[in-house]
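Researcher: Going back to the complex we discussed earlier. I've cleaned up the inputs and rechecked each line, so this should be the final set. Can you rerun the prediction on the complete assembly and write out the structure?
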Amino acid sequence: MAAGVKTRVKLPKQVGAGEVVTIKTLITHRMESGQRLDAQGAPIPRSIIHRFHCTFEGETVVDLEIGPGISTNPFFEFQARVPGPGVFTFAWHDDDGAIYSDSRAISVI
Amino acid sequence: MPLRRRDVMRVSVGALVALTVPARAQQLLVMQQDATLDEVIAAFTQGTPIAEGGVSLSLPDLAEDGYRVPVAFEATGAEEAMLIAPGNPVVPVLKIRFGPLAGSQKLATRMRLAQTQDVLALARMPDGTVAQDTRSVSVVVGGCA
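Model: Rerun complete. Updated structure for the full complex:
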């Protein structure tokens, strides 16, 4: 597990039933592309977040397969429909096998 | 001609190979690191002809810093979408699958661009058609993708 990985998620706490919310997510990660060379000219091995999966109560919102072409500290903004009160779960899958996750509860007015 | 063991073996080995080849093609992930542009597009479209329209890609015309270029993408109704940078060392950038709870088929992120190029977005619509949009971006400082 890489050190100092922090996840950030921004979404409203409350929403009308069936409404659409905008979710912004960010994870601090170097996203080492595997293309760069170190001082000795040896390639630095790839180490990226290769998958991001957002679900709401077990149902997928978005599922992303990520390549090294995504910038350092991958940021994603997308929209989700909220059918009722529940919990959003976010999972970032690292190349080293670690899965960073975060969750946010949302209530319905 | 009597049926020889040798012939039976040949046929069964042939059948085995024939069975494994399409399976191999399935495994050929869209996000493969060393895939060429044509391979990436073919893996996504599965032979469906590409139509213009239905998907829109927003990128700046001029990117000063190729390490983080804001990109937004919208394809109303799409099931799956893909972001491709033909001028990057790794061509496939992002593959998006919209689930049943996606509020819209919109996504914004930041991407790396190694050089000036035409960025490509593909989207698979529920009726099976594939839509495409391209944006040409001038890159001042290339981001080593």
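Model: Worth noting: The mean pLDDT of chain A is 92.
Researcher: Good, that matches what I expected from the previous run.
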